[in-house]
Amino acid sequence: MAGLEDWVGNTPLCLLQRLHRPGRVRVFAKLEGNNPAGSVKDRAATHMIRRALERGRIVPGTRLIEPTSGNTGIALAMAASIRGLPITLIMPENMSIERRQVMRAFGADILLTPATQGMEGAIERARAMVAAGEGVMLDQFSNPDNPEAHYLSTGPEIWRDTRGSVTHFVSAMGTTGTIMGTSRYLREVRPDICIVGVQPREGSQIPGIRRWPAAYLPAIYDASRVDRILDVGQDEAEEMTRRLAREEGILAGISSGGAMVAALRVAAELDAGTIVSIVCDRGDRYLSTGVFPA
What PANTHER family does UniProt report for this protein, alphabetically (predicted)? Predict the structure, then answer.
């Protein structure tokens, strides 16, 4: 009999029908919102906690402390609740109210940092709390168990479900765990695959996608695992998010819209190929942001 964690992964791979007409070039959306807590971060969260418990880095009763822009926090809150672990999540105050509500529903404590400080402020606050002995930070930004989760699951699923035909993999880059682990696996089975990362255009703010200052670039990031990085604007990411819902029936978050903008750019350049783009989460946790019409 399966527990909740056993239902993480094996998410649907959906062929686009209207945003891109399938032919010699096919574009697939991998629907990570179908994970139990609603995002791709379920994979890393459950894996990081499992590995930390196996190694004895945390034990029952250990308080987890983690800076998050939302999805990792939700996933960690779910995974912590399953195992009875207390957790404090630290996030910028401008993250959507739905995210905070879901985290609290799972029993997490939340601390908000000034929006002007961005994720960097949340990271610094978490580090200070850990230094003060208030808990343990799994640290999604430097923890190798984050990309390992995708090496063990996301990559193999894409290879299996495309029957080895995938030629391009497109992913938004936040912590970069998804693109690092998935690209590592896909390159092992298909060395000529093209890995495309997506970041916000200068001045754009897209939840879940970061343009990192050099001092805060995630330690797990390895530039050699990404062949191209495409910049996407906030307006085009939001419009694509709405189009995914209207034209494909995929209610997704804004980072997923940004990744799909990049995927369709790549598709327009090809004569043949199979593109897989990560749809990171569900759109219902963005309703208060105004991205969808009221």
Answer: CYSTATHIONINE BETA-SYNTHASE
